[in-house]
UniProtKB/TrEMBL annotation:
Name this polypeptide is given: Ribosomal protein S6
CDD domains: bS6_mito
Family membership: Belongs to the bacterial ribosomal protein bS6 family.
A GO CC term attached to the entry: mitochondrial small ribosomal subunit
One GO term (biological process): translation
InterPro entries in the cross-refs: Ribosomal_bS6, Ribosomal_bS6_sf, Transl_elong_EF1B/ribsomal_bS6
Pfam families xref list: Ribosomal_S6
Record GO terms (molecular function): small ribosomal subunit rRNA binding; structural constituent of ribosome
């Protein structure tokens, strides 16, 4: 079963019971149909980026929460229908994170590590200098961290 993330914006109520019941019913909907709920996160009340209208009411503030779950496509479709009909839900979005849990990578694993810029510059300068002019002193043109241009005396070609 594919792994999904549900981001749900619910109408803000003074009591937490409305949101707790919605989260519980959503999780039970997935589990009753053979799915697995992996994670629930409550982000708290936040101001909406713009005023939103849903089920005949205007909303300026919403409670945000997310749920990571494994479910079949049929379960996903029935969950969409349930969330669409629920008056407590302002907006929701479901994203497929991967087909298997092994496909999911963390942000650090996907990040390409860049080499240290000083070392990279030194390596590039060393290669350019080796190709351009031979060193009359026989030593390296570039030190480990930076270019030692002051110690070089490169003779001018005639």
């Amino acid at each position: 079963m594919p792994l999904y993330q549900l981001l749900c914006l619910t109408a803000h109520y003074a009591e937490y019971n409305f949101i707790r019941d919605l989260v519980r019913s959503t999780a039970m909907h997935v589990m009753d149909r053979g799915g697995v709920v992996r994670d629930l996160d409550y982000w708290g009340p936040r101001a909406l980026p713009q005023r939103m209208r849903r089920h005949g009411a205007w909303h300026n503030v919403s409670d945000y929460w997310t749920m990571h779950f494994d479910a079949s496509p049929a379960t996903l479709k029935s969950l969409n229908t349930t969330l669409r009909a629920d008056p407590r839900v302002v907006r929701w979005s479901m994203i497929k994170l991967g087909h298997r849990p092994e496909d999911i990578q963390t942000f650090e694993e996907m990040t390409i590590k860049r080499p240290d810029s000083d070392k990279l510059k030194a390596q590039l300068a060393n290669e350019v200098l080796k190709k351009a002019v031979p060193n009359p002193l026989g030593g390296p043109y570039v030190e480990e961290i930076g270019i030692a241009m002051s110690s070089l005396s490169i003779p001018k070609s005639p």
